[in-house]
Specification:
16 helices, 16 strands, 21% strand, alpha/beta, seven-stranded parallel sheet, 422 residues, Aldehyde Dehydrogenase, Chain A, domain 1, 44% helix, globular, homodimer, Aldehyde Dehydrogenase, Chain A, domain 2, 2 domains, four-stranded parallel sheet
């Protein structure tokens, strides 16, 4: 354990030593490294696939479920997609050095704010090997060094990918240690990494609740919070009902297992009798189980829509499946109250043509994304136009919502004077 | 201890319960509360002074040093200054609801980013009673609830000020608990507060290294880091020497005990022989003790300027006094290297007329403020034009440098659609 500790510290120190080189690398150098990385991933496809085949065989022998094996599995297409993602990150604007604001002081000082990298990022993830190249590309483009700590089941695959990453860095004249894969995947080593204050600036965990919980409990370094997504679609009295139906169906059924899927439908009392039967039919036709509040249940039943009574636990619950809670609320205030009480500040949507209701909902609902007349599923880095996403933050510190390149930077004040003193 | 624990939790819960009211309060309501607070502070001046006199008598009897008593002491003028600060915060623009960016997606979705409050802020401070009203005003204007935990020696003064704060809130129709002073000033209670994840969103410690260290060790909630300020003034080969002299003298001597004072002077080899004697004379004339590197020492000595040899410890040291390390560096790269190794990422200044050197220094030096041709002393919320400052962050997470109203907010994504689904 003390041996793991000292080797993790050594590893982090060797990554930290590359920070200045990364932070001051020009856009051209970083882009050359990204181009070389994409090329190396394509060139190494055969050895990456061979390593992945070994990982897969072991995971299959260990009786891992199909869904797990699917996340772990690479194919020629998936490797090409990894390389294409690196190319896509290369095409994004370099955030480092970007001046976000300028102003002048009465004494003539010119003040600006300029983006700089965070430093060293620790990325912790599970089975998907593509996170290895995705995270490395985002870190590199934003001038950060990165420690990659993937799941033990993907170690051979990740190591093969990491070789391509390293080759790309070196060929562009950047230090290979700027992207370092942790090959000691013991829990104790992860625990040590999480305590390396001063060497690691930010930890981004991507994975199930078990991983997130472990990281949260052991970390002494800043961690991006990623809590569950309990998202609502609220259909206001002045909604376009066909739009509301399409949004509710999409938010619930397009991918029920993800965090921006809706878990609960809130319907304004005024249109409950009109809207509940049609949306209920549309949802149940796609296999959704409805858990209805005491007001909505009889309306659904009278219309012949199958539904069961919601327990109080069903509100505020992340089903991650084709299950949806349904509740009738008296009005906009009732919806906002319900969301404040049961939501998880992830994604909240309103469907309405009423401008005042839109604006109150946008102002008063606290969530990383507040959506008007569209599906909750758009709360995603790619869909919002960030280009790529390294994670999503459900706390308000540093970043709130999907994190792209800019969220991997901080800002410094730049002061230009002509000899001013105080 | 378990009793303290439960009462701190109760206290934090009662503050948290006010979050929505604060977050959704209009600018008019918040400004009315701030106006009422300023008025109440003025109206209560006599009782605040009486409470402060008791605190002072006790502190004096306990043998507290003069500097401590001076920080603790209130006068009619200082109380007026407190009220005026509240008025000044009222006059600042409301950050909540501010839209910082907008863009449109190919599918027609309109994306914006809008500021929202952080939630509940825990402010921990020591002797100065004015922090009570300053922090409350900044929190209130930015829509945050705040828990104020001042030093035990200022408890009577703080309680008297807190009564004025509460009256102001209530008179504007806001919940009085939104600004709550902790009257249980036991260390154990502070420890409990620092563990209230989910109830407190951010802790801002303002005080000496003992306090900062205690908070850092015990906190399970996010904390604004405030490390020491080891700031440099680098005089480049192309500097205007009289400007450089004035900046070095101001950065060192205008207030040597603060974190944005300079601790080390770096002088380009090219102008060491010309510049060191004059700047050395100017500094020593103001009582500065120079600790000089092996190259600068003989130059100073030959010019009759008193100096002692610097030990290696003297570089990277925060003297907080009229002591300054002096080092000759070969060139811009040498200066940047020295700063990267010995600086604390607080404030770094260069004096030069050379645009290229300015731009490289600005890009390559990592510090919360990088200053060109002006004193390091300008790294301060008021001087930078933030209007007011609740603290200064020396880490890059969330905020880097002085924190004003905006740094007490986060940003949410706001998505406007016309029925888009995925």
């Amino acid at each position: 354990m003390s041996r793991a500790s000292s080797s993790m510290r050594q590893l982090a120190e060797s990554v930290r030593a590359t920070c200045r080189a990364l932070a001051t690398a020009t856009t051209e150098t970083k882009d050359a490294a990204l181009a070389a990385i994409a090329q190396a991933i394509r060139a190494d496809a055969a050895s990456i696939l061979a390593a992945n085949a070994e990982d897969l065989a072991e995971a299959r022998a260990a009786g891992r479920p199909e869904a797990f094996l699917d996340r772990l599995a690479l194919t020629a297409d998936r490797i090409e997609a990894m390389a294409a993602s690196v190319d896509a990150v290369r095409a994004l604007p370099d955030p480092v050095g970007e001046v976000t604001e300028r102003w002048k002081r009465p004494n003539g000082l010119e003040i600006a704010r300029m983006r700089l990298p965070l430093g060293v990022i620790l990325m912790i993830y599970e089975a998907r090997p593509n996170v290895t190249s995705d995270a490395a590309a985002l870190a590199l483009k934003s001038g950060n060094a990165v420690i990659l700590r993937g799941g033990r089941e993907a170690l051979r695959s990740n190591s093969a990918i990491a070789r391509a990453l390293r080759m790309g860095l070196i060929s562009a004249g950047l230090p290979g240690e700027a992207v370092t894969l942790v090959t000691d995947v013991a829990h104790a080593s992860l625990g040590e990494l999480l305590k390396l204050e001063g060497l690691i600036d930010l930890c981004i965990p991507r994975g199930g609740q078990g991983l997130v919980q472990f990281v949260h409990e052991h970390a002494r370094i800043p961690v991006v919070e990623h809590a569950e997504g309990v998202c609502h679609v609220y259909v206001h009295a002045d909604a376009d009902l066909s739009q509301a139906e399409a949004i509710a169906v999409n938010a619930k059924t397009s991918r029920p297992g993800v965090c921006n899927a809706a878990e609960c439908l809130l319907v304004d009392r005024e249109l409950a009798a009109d809207f509940l039967p049609r949306v209920g039919r549309a949802l149940t036709a796609r296999g959704v189980e409805l858990r209805a509040c005491p007001i909505s249940l009889p309306i659904l039943e009278r219309a012949g829509v199958p539904a069961i009574p919601a327990s109080t636990d069903d509100f505020g619950r992340e089903f991650l499946s084709l299950t949806m809670a349904v509740r009738v609320v008296p009005d906009l205030d009732g919806a906002i109250d319900h969301i404040a009480r049961f939501g998880s500040e992830h994604t909240e949507a309103i469907v309405t043509r009423d401008r005042k209701a839109q604006s109150r909902f946008v102002r008063e609902v606290a969530a990383s994304a507040v959506v008007v007349n569209a599906s909750t599923r758009f709360n995603d880095g790619g869909e919002l136009g960030l280009g790529a996403e390294i994670g999503i933050s459900t706390s308000r510190m540093h970043a709130f919502g999907p994190m792209g390149l800019r969220e991997l930077t901080s800002q410094k004040y730049v002061v230009h004077g002509t000899g001013q003193v105080r």
